[in-house]
Structure formats: structure tokens, C-alpha cells
Specification:
The complex is a heterodimer of chains A (125) and B (143). With 125 residues, chain A is α+β, with helices and mostly antiparallel strands. Chain A has one domain (2-113): Dimeric alpha+beta barrel (Alpha-Beta Plaits, 2-Layer Sandwich), CATH 3.30.70.1060. Chain A has 2 helices and 6 strands. In chain A, the strands form 2 sheets. In chain A, strands 2-5-1-6 form a 4-stranded antiparallel sheet, with helices on one face. The two termini of chain A are 24 Å apart. Chain B has 143 residues and is an alpha+beta fold. Chain B folds into 2 domains: 2-109, Alpha-Beta Plaits; 112-143, no CATH class. Helix content of chain B is 33%, strand content 28%. Chain B has helices at residues 11-14, 21-36, 87-95, 121-138, and strands spanning 2-8, 40-45, 53-58, 61-66, 76-83, 102-108. Classes of the chains: A alpha+beta (125), B alpha+beta (143). At the A-B interface, strand 1, helix 1, strand 2, strand 3 and strand 5 of A face strand 1, helix 2, strand 2, strand 3 and helix 3 of B. Strand 3 (55-59) of chain A pairs antiparallel with strand 6 (102-108) of chain B, so a sheet runs across the interface.
Chain lengths: 125, 143
């Protein structure tokens, strides 16, 4: 089964547009990525620029409104993700616990939908 | 440049309600257009947060909390990764998406060159190796 591991760094919702992680943190994360990769668990990963550089589209009755970041009301923001292939949610949690996250960070694990999760009659032939 | 398009959760996605046949068909058509245009690199839907977990890092302690995360206002329900020439191009594509009442966020993805000197040549080489290996596994390669 596949899990998306979403990194929610503390305070990232308020980060400046050009904020970057420190060189030490980058090096630590690389070691973690190396461990995921060596275990054959890692399917993909990316880091995201801060929400202050983002744009939101809100769809209501099909006419989207466009708003640029930062978004004052936001309480937490995704800073990046890993997509991992594991045998169970417990294995995913174990990997999340090993992440060199900083004080106040949250890692959210979310199972990815597979085609087999959909009733066959809903799928295009 | 690459963008991650984060589709936010709503009551239905959090209740585990699957999209109906009409929406699936419309989404399938939209995905096909994205693929044909060479824009779509990835796209996935996520199960409701009730099936997930959070690990909170605090003062050297790690606390595991099982979903659902009712207090979280902006849960993710799915995402795409798009390759486009500008954020405006991503906005233009997204305006065509068959959503009814949804909030969607466009976030630029870091590329190696965005990190400047913090990403040393050694780290960059390592990063490229991880990506290549991940891509191989994602295509069904053996561990």
C-alpha cells in the first residue's frame, strides 16, 4: 500500500517567499531520504515553496475565484511530501517517527487510493 | 517549472464518499487533456484522514495520533504534479478543472537549483540518485 507522508513544518504558513531550510537540515533530510531509498520504500518526494508564493482557486458553482498567498487564516501548511510504498500503516508510522523533523513539526500519513479501491462499475473501461 | 496542485478535503471526501460516475468521467477527461498536453506528471487521491495518522514532534518526543483530524481546517484530499512554463499556465489549466465546490492550492515545487550553495555537489548527486531509484520503484521495479 502507498502512503503520502506530508511534512507540516512549524510556522511554514507564515514563511517568507524565499525561505529555505538550513544547510544542516538539508543534509539531515538527505540522510533520511537515503535510508528510505535504500529500504526500497521511497516512490517520490518533493519540497514546496512557501504558501506566500502560492495561489488558491476557490470553485463555487463552477466559477473559480483566484487569490494569491499568503493566506492569513491558514493555521498550518504543507512544506513537502514523501510518497512511500509500505506493507502497513504501522510501517508508515515507523518511517515517519524516524524523520529528522524539528520541534513543533507534524508528519501526516495518508493512504493513497488505488484503482482497486473503486467499485469496477465506476471505472472507465 | 513544476507545481503541486493540492485539492482540499470537504465533508464528502472526509466521510469516505467516492466521487460519482459523472465526476469520475469528467475528471478522467480532464486528466487526459493534461496528459496529452504534457502537463501532468502525477496525480493521486487520498483516503479520508480517518485512515491516516499524524506524528507530532515536540521537545524530543514523538506523539502518534490516529485520524480523523477534525481540528485541521485544510486537509488534503488529492493532488497533481504539473510541469508548466509559469504559474499563470497552471492557473489557466486549473480553471478548466471540473470542480463544483472545492478549494485548490497551487504550490511551486523546489528544484535543486533553488537551494543554492546549501545543496553541495555531493548532496545534489545523492538527491539525483534517490530520484532515479524512486522513479524505478514507482514504475514497478523490484526493491
Amino acid at each position: 500500500m502507498r502512503f503520502m507522508m506530508l511534512m507540516i513544518p512549524k510556522g511554514y504558513e507564515k514563511a517568507e517567499p524565499h525561505a529555505l531550510p538550513s544547510a544542516e537540515l538539508i543534509a539531515e533530510m538527505m540522510r533520511y531520504n537515503e535510508a528510505l531509498s535504500n529500504a526500497g520504500v521511497l516512490l517520490s518526494l518533493d519540497g514546496l515553496h512557501p504558501p506566500s508564493k502560492a495561489t488558491r482557486l476557490t470553485f463555487q458553482s463552477k466559477k473559480p475565484t483566484v487569490v494569491d498567498g499568503p493566506f492569513a487564516e491558514t493555521k498550518e501548511a504543507v512544506g513537502g511530501y514523501w510518497l512511500i510504498q509500505v506493507k502497513s500503516k504501522e510501517e508508515a508510522v515507523e518511517w515517519a517517527r524516524r524523520c529528522p523533523a524539528q520541534n513543533g513539526d507534524i508528519l501526516e500519513l495518508r493512504q493513497v487510493q488505488e484503482l482497486s479501491d473503486f467499485p469496477p462499475e465506476l471505472l472507465p473501461t | 517549472m513544476r507545481f503541486m496542485i493540492l485539492v482540499k478535503a470537504d465533508k464528502n471526501s472526509e466521510a469516505g464518499v467516492l466521487p460519482d460516475e459523472k465526476l469520475l468521467a469528467e475528471m478522467g477527461k480532464f486528466n487526459e487533456e493534461l496528459l496529452k498536453a504534457g502537463v501532468m506528471l502525477a496525480g493521486e487521491g487520498l483516503h479520508a484522514s480517518a485512515k491516516g495518522a499524524r506524528v507530532r514532534f515536540s521537545g524530543g518526543k514523538k506523539t502518534v495520533i490516529d485520524g480523523p483530524f477534525t481540528e485541521a481546517k485544510e486537509l488534503v484530499a488529492g493532488f497533481w504534479i504539473w510541469q508548466v512554463k509559469s504559474k499563470q499556465e497552471a492557473i489557466d489549466w486549473l480553471k478548466r478543472a471540473p470542480f463544483q465546490e472545492t478549494e485548490v492550492e497551487i504550490r511551486q515545487i523546489f528544484e535543486a537549483e533553488d537551494f543554492g550553495p546549501a545543496l553541495t555537489p555531493e548532496l545534489r548527486e545523492q538527491e539525483e540518485r534517490h530520484r532515479a531509484e524512486a522513479e524505478r520503484l514507482a514504475k514497478g521495479g523490484k526493491r
